[in-house]
Design a protein that fits this description.
Blueprint lengths: L18 H8 L5 E2 L11 H10 L12 H11 L6 E4 L2 H12 L5 E6 L4 H8 L3 E6 L7 H7 L4 E7 L11 H10 L5 E5 L24 E6 L12 E5 L1 H7 L10 H10 L3 H24 L3 E2 L6 E5 L4 H10 L2 E2 L1 E2 L8 E5 L3 H15 L3
Parallel strand pairs: 1-11, 3-4, 3-5, 5-6, 6-7
Antiparallel strand pairs: 2-8, 7-8, 9-10, 10-13, 12-13
Helix pairs in contact: 2-9, 3-9, 4-5, 10-12
This protein binds pyridoxal-5'-phosphate.
The site of pyridoxal-5'-phosphate (PLP) has 13 residues, from helix 4.
Length: 362
């Protein structure tokens, strides 16, 4: 038995060590995972309540069209309901898009390093991936524009970029969008939008009126704290989004996820509080770096990429022994860095304490 040629060089997604395994292996009582940019404050109590409400209905299939949630999101964004496509996480929207658009001989354009799922899904579909190196953690949009050719189907823009956290401002984004041929899809992956404080961050949804090739990705996994339920969506041109829909599984988002997302949207206070605490946490890490002359990227997400000037594994080992699982930069294209999800104040303090010892050779 043989799988498709395109699958052969690929490895499955490495989710990082599970908390229980680390506890057992290292004999630790408390282990905190700050490796996947999940919300350290959980989710809104409204979402929790909504989950309980639908538990009695688990024997029936969910509404495959997610009508209730669809109407609410459409009203929020002031778009037509038919412009939305819900996925089992925004990861699945990336998969659907690649499945629907890409064949052998086609290509996509992305930054590198960036979120790996663009590349992964494109490769499976047999497409080529044109990767344009970041400059100082930022997308090189001019070079990305130059990389587009007649076989380019999708350009992925990750804003803010994972793993650097840099965001793209309104003017450069708009100039880029204008310059891309109208038959090439421009994906604006806004997984961390709710955390962004940069004043020049683009409001992309109104641009959909003018740019039929723009597709925006949003998720409930990060600031909304619903990562385990797997729900996110794409919003784009109505006819185009409808044409993608046959590539979607019939019941791809669960009733529990739909309901939790629906009620999570009512809790702006929760979101705002998370955003503020996150910003304070980022400042703590930046201050630590400034004090020790260490490089970091200005993050608009809920994570920081810190360069400790030692192999990422050294920092990773040090922190795991202190009960914190972070992401080793070696696997992210930044060999002397670690990516740390911003935790609670106490968690950030403990990590910074440990890192201070590390950089002082203690
Ligand atoms: C986390 C993340 C996603 C995927 O989120 P889902 O849980 O699949 O909705 C998409 N893009 C980026 C950049 C991410 O960091």
């Amino acid at each position: 038995m043989e799988v498709k040629q395109t699958l052969r060089g690929l490895t499955p997604y490495q989710p990082g060590k599970p908390v229980d395994e680390v506890k057992r292996e290292l004999g630790l009582e408390k282990v905190v995972k700050l490796a996947s940019n999940e919300n350290p404050y959980g989710c809104s109590p409204l979402a929790k309540k909504a989950i309980e409400d639908v538990l009695s209905d688990v024997a029936v299939y969910p509404d495959g069209y997610a009508q209730k949630l669809r109407t609410k999101v459409a009203n929020r964004l002031e778009v037509n309901e038919k412009q939305l496509l819900f996925g089992n996480g925004s990861d699945e929207v990336i998969l659907i898009l690649c499945r629907a658009l890409l064949s052998k001989g086609d290509n996509i354009v992305t930054a590198t390093p960036t979120f790996p799922q663009y590349r992964h899904n494109a490769i499976i579909e047999g497409a080529e991936v044109k990767e344009v190196p970041l400059v100082n953690g930022e997308h090189d949009l001019d070079k990305m524009r130059e990389a587009i050719d007649e076989r380019t189907k999708i350009v992925f823009v990750c804003n803010p970029n994972n793993p650097t956290g840099n965001s793209i401002g309104e003017k450069p984004f708009l100039d880029f969008l204008k310059s891309v041929p109208e038959d090439v899809v421009v994906v604006s992956d806004e997984a961390y939008k709710e955390y962004v404080t940069a004043e020049d961050y683009p409001e992309t949804v109104p641009l959909l009126k003018e740019y039929s090739n723009l597709l925006i990705l949003r998720t409930f996994s990060k600031a909304y704290g619903l990562a385990s339920l797997r729900i996110g969506y794409g919003v784009g041109n109505e006819a185009f989004m409808q044409s993608l829909d046959p590539a979607r599984e019939p019941f791809n988002t669960s009733a529990i996820a739909q309901s939790a997302a629906y009620y999570a949207l009512d809790d702006d206070d929760f979101l705002l509080e998370c955003k503020q605490k996150n910003r304070e946490g980022i400042r703590m890490f930046e201050q630590f770096c400034d004090e020790h002359n260490l490089h970091y990227y200005p993050s608009q997400g809920n994570f920081v990429l810190l360069d400790l000037n030692v192999s990422g594994s050294v920092t990773f080992d040090r922190l795991i022994r202190a009960g914190y699982i972070v992401r080793n930069g070696e696997a992210l294209g930044f060999p002397t860095s670690v990516r740390i999800t911003v935790g609670s104040k106490e968690q950030n303090e403990e990590i910074i304490n440990e890192l201070t010892k590390l950089v002082s050779g203690r």
